[in-house]
Amino acid sequence: MTLQDIKTIAVIGAGTMGQSIAQLCAQAGFTTILYDINATVLANAQAATLASLQRLVEKGKISVHTQEETLHRLTFTADILQVIANVVIEAVVERLDVKQSILNEVADQNRPETVLASNTSSLPITRIAAKVQGPERVVGLHFFNPATIMQLVEVISGAATAPEVVALMQELAVTLGKTPVLAQDAPGFIVNRVARHFYVESLKLLEENVASHEGIDRLLQASGFKMGPFQLMDLIGVDTNFSVTSAMYEAFHQDPKFRPSRWQQQKVDAGHHGRKSGKGFYDYSGKA
Ligand code: NAI
Predict the structure, then answer these.
(1) Residues 82, 109: Cα–Cα separation, whole Å
(2) Helices and strands in the chain: count of H runs, count of E runs
(3) pLDDT in tens, 162-195
(4) Is 209 annotated as a binding residue?
(5) What positions belong to coiled-coil segments (predicted)?
(6) What pTM value is reported for the model?
(7) Do residues 7 and 31 both lie within one domain?
(8) Same domain assignment for residues 154 and 206
(9) How far apart are CA 218 and CA 191, in angstroms?
């Protein structure tokens, strides 16, 4: 398959990342299918997409015609049978079994050359691919949050990934207006491996009562970071951030430097998942 053969992209999982990846693909001109098992999540994703495109129109960044065309290219569905595409990008919860099972399900109903890409932040592509039919077409395509804005995409080659598939995903990333960076298959790849300490150490400071989460955020922002770690965890999703740390802790054979925080675990258990749930380290209940 060449870049010109890619007409349709399906995104699985319409949460924080899936919504923005699907919007990005539709804006770039691809027929795009956004699938989720959860109808409420799908409705929220549709509303978020409408609002985001409307903001772009109001800022004069896109025309009303482009807005309409983009929406026309997008299908929101809870029917897995509609997930038929040249490229499938999964952005479901950070769990190996869920990713393997959903990719296998779509592998079954798609052509053998359909690329199966994972937006995983931390799970080894080789391990995901091991239980999927046609592991040579399984590849990592790791966008950053929000995918419509962030420039970087990590393209990850698993042990079985065909070099042509890796090259094709690099080309696709460029077509989507992104800068692809090639990474080999190590837990957390490049960015999350480095960034993990930003979160883990900040959580330790909080647990040791060295400073409040607001104080840590303010200090790090003042020192040049665009967002503090707690603001960022709320944007990412406290649950997703916790799953990524947990997966990396296991992948590095319980190396204490990646040990997940019990404080963060408690936030996850309480349903305080950040912006998407209305409350995380900060309260968003009063905000639209
Ligand atoms: P999320 O929790 O916001 O969304 C996950 C979605 O997957 C939910 O809507 C859920 O209903 C859906 N889902 C779960 N099982 C499913 C299934 N079997 N079939 C269809 N849909 C299913 O998660 P988020 O944050 O969007 O993360 C998704 C993936 O993207 C994870 O692998 C995460 O590591 C990765 N990622 C997350 C980033 C972030 O900033 N949140 C950044 C880059 C990657």
Answers:
(1) 9
(2) 11, 8
(3) 999 999 999 999 999 999 999 999 999 999 999 9
(4) no
(5) none
(6) 0.95
(7) yes
(8) no
(9) 23
